Amino acid sequence: MSTAIEAPDAPELTTPRRGLGIERRQLIGAGIGQVIEWFDWTAYALLAVYFAPQFFPAGTSGLVALLGTYGILAVGFIARPLAGLVVGAVADHFGRKRALMLTVYGMGGASLVIALAPTYEQVGALAPLILLLARIVQGICIGGEFASVSALAMESAGPGRRGWVAGLMNLFGNLGGVLLVGIVTGLAFLIGDDAMAAGGWRIVFLLGALLALGGWFLRRHMAETQAPEAADHRVTLRSLVRPMLLHPRQSIQVIGLTLGFTAMVYAWGTYFPAYASTYHGLPLQWSMLSLLVTHLSLMVLVPLAGLVSDRFGRRPTMIVGGLALTLGTVPALGLLTDSVARLLVIQVVGNAFIALLQASSMPAYAELFPRRFRATGFGFPYSLTVGLIGGTVPLVGTELKNLGAPDAFPWYLVALMGISTLFYLRMRETAFDPLPE
């Protein structure tokens, strides 16, 4: 099967502003997608405790309903490899802008469907099925967003500014997390838990859909960065896997660079508060505060880390982050108690090193592949690794606890981070070269 389309317009970018490192319309158009991605993806996990009982039979226990809802959450991660392949191909064959318009449509549409989804009491088994399908669409769009927006942002960045621009992209993403946590917390205090469970949770998903509508408007003004001569405008099954066939070393490198990075992002960013609660009796209500502090600290730390990455290079920046997390994760978990202050300090310090990886990884991935294969080239191996490793961190931590081996979890994280650090040590420095054409 092949599909022919007219060539996208040639890039029409003006010189990026020195302060931003990227033209304003490109920054806003790319950044709004990061806000929506983090808002929509995290909303499901945070609100599951409220809406889970409404999508399963009345006789189902709260725990079973919650597990079923989190199972649907996992499906979103499973959809990510498909997203990296298909949406990445759209970005490479049809243009970055078209792919990013597609992802914002899907993210907004999925949020709207979840907001309006009927309950089990109203439509029976169709209710969890609707939730599942919406989550698959959301997973595909969110999973395809990263590679496409990375390609556009890195191709739009000024010379020597790709790390800084990557930091700005992460700033937008964490802004989405701050907005979500603030809205959920505010609603919970304003209308109470009973009202949230009765339907207040739907307000958050409606806001996510409205945010996507704003994203669609802002992305209409972006300039295309995929040059017409760089793309093969026929899509075939072979063309989908061609980037991996032509660049197998780079594909393996993406997996290696991502293994520990994605595990640490999910562990330090979302799981450690639950870990402190499960293992040390920290009250669960403090987890929201911890999550808010994580997002706020990363909004400051990642752009600063981007400056470091541009100044000293991807390789030394990622080596420092990788070594610190490899050597420090086990002692850090050993320091956790039921103290909220201690948890916050540990998370902020840990996220300072994660920021080094976040600011360097986006440009490092983009610098591995030529323009014609850039989105698909790293999108598929990256999404595959995030889906299999990052998305299963909470599951692994909980399962090790159930198996009576709680001390194994930190070493699991360290093993993954150690593998990635070996890749950091062996990677070629690419920060000071132009993007491959």
From TrEMBL:
Question: InterPro entries, from UniProt?
Answer: H+-coupled_symporters, MFS, MFS_dom, MFS_trans_sf, Sugar_transporter_CS
Database matches in Pfam families: MFS_1
Task: Identify the SUPFAM superfamilies for this entry.
Answer: MFS general substrate transporter
Q: What Gene Ontology cellular component terms go with this record?
A: plasma membrane
Keyword Transmembrane helix among UniProt keywords: yes
Q: What is its main location?
A: membrane
Where, per UniProt, does this protein localize?
Cell membrane
Record keywords: Cell membrane, Membrane, Symport, Transmembrane, Transmembrane helix, Transport
Ranges where the Major facilitator superfamily (MFS) profile domain occurs: 26-432
Its membrane topology, per UniProt?
Multi-pass membrane protein
Q: Does the keyword Transmembrane apply?
A: yes
Q: GO molecular function terms here?
A: symporter activity
The regions listed as transmembrane in this protein's record are: 27-51, 63-87, 99-120, 126-152, 164-192, 198-218, 252-274, 286-307, 319-337, 343-366, 378-397, 409-425
Q: Which family does it belong to?
A: Belongs to the major facilitator superfamily. Metabolite:H+ Symporter (MHS) family (TC 2.A.1.6) family.
Name of the protein described by the UniProt record = Putative transmembrane transport protein
